Amino acid sequence: MRMKNRLSLTIDPLIARKAKRVAKNQNKSLSALVEGLLSDVVRGGHKPEPLASFSQRWQGKLSLNRKSESRFEQLANKYDL
After folding, report:
1. Which one, 32, 39, 40, 62, has least CB within 10 Å?
2. Mutual angle of helices 13-25 and 30-43, in 10-degree steps
3. CB 56 within 8 A of CB 50
4. Cα separation of the two ends of the chain
5. What whole-number distance in Å separates Cα of residue 18 and Cα of residue 16?
6. Does residue 33 fall inside a structural domain?
7. Count of structural domains within the chain
8. Are the CB atoms for 40 and 46 separated by under 8 Å?
9. pLDDT tens-digit map of 17-56
10. What string of H, E and C letters represents the secondary structure of the chain?
11. Is residue 39 part of a domain?
């Protein structure tokens, strides 16, 4: 069996807690989970999804509060809202 190298990572505490929970649910150590994910990345088996743009992330999540103000009506007509 190969010797393993010790590696220190600095990550967000929330992500660390969630990662520990995922590892526990898979009956793995956190080290084994991270090693498996990194192994996929270096072999080219894991293709990260492209990050969504700001507009894609918020699409359909905001709604317009229609007001009966003249300025709002003018802007709504101008921008076909």
Report:
1. 62
2. 100
3. no
4. 65
5. 5
6. yes
7. 1
8. yes
9. 999 999 999 999 999 999 998 888 888 866 667 778 888 8
10. CCCCCCCCCCCCHHHHHHHHHHHHHCCCCHHHHHHHHHHHHHHCCCCCCCCCCHHHHHCCCCCCCCCCCHHHHHHHHHCCC
11. yes
What was the pLDDT predicted at 47? 66
Range of the domain at 34: 12-46
- Residue 21 tokens, joined: 């929970």
User: How many other CB atoms sit within 10 Å of the CB of residue 28?
Assistant: 14
pTM, full prediction: 0.52
Does a structural domain hold residue 1?
Answer: no
Average of pLDDT values for 4-27? 93
Domain contains 28 = yes
| Averaged pLDDT score across all residues of the chain | 85
